[in-house]
TrEMBL record, chain B:
Position of the signal peptide: none
Alphabetized InterPro entries for the sequence: 2Fe-2S-bd_N (IPR042204), 2Fe-2S_ferredoxin-like_sf (IPR036010)
Name the UniProt record assigns to this protein: 2Fe-2S ferredoxin-type domain-containing protein
Pfam families xrefs: Fer2_4
UniProt KW Oxidoreductase keyword: yes
Organism for this UniProt entry: marine metagenome
Keyword annotations: Oxidoreductase
GO function terms (MF aspect): iron-sulfur cluster binding; oxidoreductase activity
Amino acid sequence: MKAERVIIVGAGPAGLSAALKLIRSGIRPTLVDEAAESGGQIFRRQPKEFKRSPQVVYGFDAKSAIEEHRKFDEIAKNIDTRLGTMVCGIENQRLYLFNGAEVNFLDFDRLILATGAFDTVIPLPGWTLPGVFTLGGAQVSLKTQGCAVGRRIVFLGASPLLPYTAFQYCMAGAEVGGILETTSLSSKLAALPEMLKHSKGRKGVSMVAKLVLKGIPLRLGVKPLRIEGNKSVKSIVFLDSRGRENCWDCDAVIMGYGFKSENQLADLAGCHLYFEAQTNEWRVENDGEGRTSLPYVYVAGDGNGVKGWESARIEGELAANSLLKDLNLVSKMSEEIEVKNKLKKLSFFRKALDRAFPYPHHLAAEIEDSTIVCRCELISAGEIRQASKVSGEFEINRIKSFCRVGMGRCQGRICGSTTAEILRLLQGTSLEAVGHFRAQSPVKPIPTQNFRIFE
Amino acid sequence: MSLLKRIADTDRPKVTIFIDGVEIQALLGDTVLTAILLHGKRVRVSEFGDGPRAGFCLMGVCQDCWVRSHNGKIFQACTTPVEEGMSLVTTIGNSSNES
Amino acid sequence: MKLNIDVAIIGGGTAGVAGALDLRKQGLTVAVFERHKIGSQASGVNYGGVRQQGRNSDELPLSKRSREIWEQLPNLIGSNCDFESTGHLKLARSEKEMEDLEQFSKLAAKHKLEIELLDHRSLRDRFPVLGESVIGASYCPSDGKANPRLVAPAFGRAAIKAGALIFEKEGVTNALHSSTGFVIETDKGRKVYSRVLVNSSGAWGDTVAGWFDEHVVLEVKNPNMFVTAPMPYRLKVNIGVSGADFYVRQTDRGNLICGGGFGISDRQASLSRPKLDVAQETSARLIDIIPFVSESMVIRTWTGIEGFMPDSIPVIGMSEKIPELVHAFGFSGHGFQLGPVVGEIISELVTKGSCSLPIKPFNINRF
């Protein structure tokens, strides 16, 4: 039997789960991840020079983190694992990989995309100042670099990771200036009963209680107005739930409004994407078992709809299972029905979280004209609106070609959701009709001096 | 003053690097971004006059922390570990001879 | 759905919408049918070089007239589409290439196109960003660059403002001609009746011509393009090489727009894809002639679907078989600068049946 060449992109919970499943069934996939260490985001491993215990780094998720790291160590013994390697392009069944020094290509028979997610942000005046970072970034800094992102940190946004990260920072001894959530108290209370049904929800609520008991100011129903500072963050100004203007001194603002799937590779490969109205996400069309519209591409984890690491683990195994089935290889999986039920149960918790931390669409859509939306190209909300008004168009790739939003290095990852909201509101259309930025290779930049291609 | 603050795991071998010509002690395992922001408040300057930038996502998504070394190499600061003798420039956009 | 119109235009590239604008000025009713969006293919994905230099001698009179229209764009369509006359430099990498450039300069002189030949020393004095391997160049000061993403849509809006109908996301599936005129069917089920039909359908021009039993060989190619992150502005002039195998220009925001080689496509599905390895080859060639390119960062590749004729010049002119059928397609990868004049030509052909510019060499039955 010819050895099937399988590549797994992503060494987070979904990717590791898939890799382990394949290895135990006799397949030797290649595992690739752009980060220097495995674990994805939530369980990102520290560099080997760091000595903190998992309990210190991951708190009550320590046990799960240790499991993920053991999985990787077992996997790394058996197969080719390429960390620090970014998949920059895909052409039919050839993957292009950038390892920081040069580009290599790797042909494959089957591909599992477990590419995870990244922060959703909402711009406001001053958000490009040094000292403003994302929620994911705050996690990376603390977990993998042992650094707090500032001396007095304010957390802003709408995400369960907001109080979670603030709590981690508190426990690590950093000064948390406060937490500003856009979600109203009434929304929180409405979501509370469902939250309390799940152990994770109860843990989250107790975390918030602990923060409040520590005297950390927590404000709900806020409208952030601007971040102030000359060369770096000095303070954040916001309206509280009663509409009063407040100013909090700080030297760092951590922003997080949820997460967005990294599905550029699936898009580039030619998989069909569809708009999931329930969660306002663009997702890779799949059959519920990881198979996409392309027979050789599978998806798993947060890279296809943000559902959390527990779902990601299960989906990784499910996708690998589908791949094995498609190769007519014997596969044993704990009852598929049981697994799918587990996924469903997890999705109920996810829905509760979404209700408790809703993405404030209006905040994004009503951004002032003068606020910068696209950091890479320095394009303002006003320029986006102008391009749409003059052309009469609202499809996001057309607007990109007219005013340059999303044409920069990050290919619209940071500005995409806000741009879509602006266009939706301006033209009275739907997010689905506005569309998403089309992926283009290289999906992340390659310095020209390193742009040499080898096998 | 710096942006980042070390609060853990400070017992690691030292690595000497240079930031805008100034000799700095980083620690083995630091990323270039960490090293630069433990020293100051700027990784680069926006090409379009928006002022200093210090990265944003810290995980290789925002592309806002590309930094140039003295000998013309460019790399993403948040995903590149420090190496002994690195010499970095933070006073420019992502290319040379720009103020 | 039925529509009665004087002129139906198939294809919403610059040629089609510029034609629509001019026809409205002549008082005719016009409808443009575009299967995607105005300027989706060649008109929008090209390099953006506004160039007379290096053209086939038959194209030079048209190109000259087009160059005049480029200056008038703000009045004509309300925007200059970032057009700037920054000059075009065509580099020679060998003595043979330099000879070719010298030949062209003689031809250019006949057409009163100003060209300056530069030897190695004066070239590197004037353009210090160039590397050692360039032995000479030909410089055309009146050439320049513009933003291709803006041009066709701007012409389209001007045409609509002038009263043209533009149907986007509506492709023409068939067209017939009889003594009473043309009957056109679209994929939205619309039936269009027109007196005149304009075939400005780019890389699909041969398909449309084929409906009327006019057969030409058209090859589809996909210019492989890439762009870098912004860099300090160092390259004002638009650069090409003799042989045209690759080209680079710097936008005033600092990005380097580079092209060379070809990607792949599926014309039926209107899908095209650039190739990373082709982009890499181009970048290596560029670094050789312009060393500072090695300081850049490649951020994106793209391509589109373009139609190439066997002799590398377009088909422009009346149909040989059907009266009132006008062809204007197959611009073979260098139609951007000609777009504006082609609009005028289409209009003239429709209203007069002839054209004041010499378009005989572009006749559809020349093969």
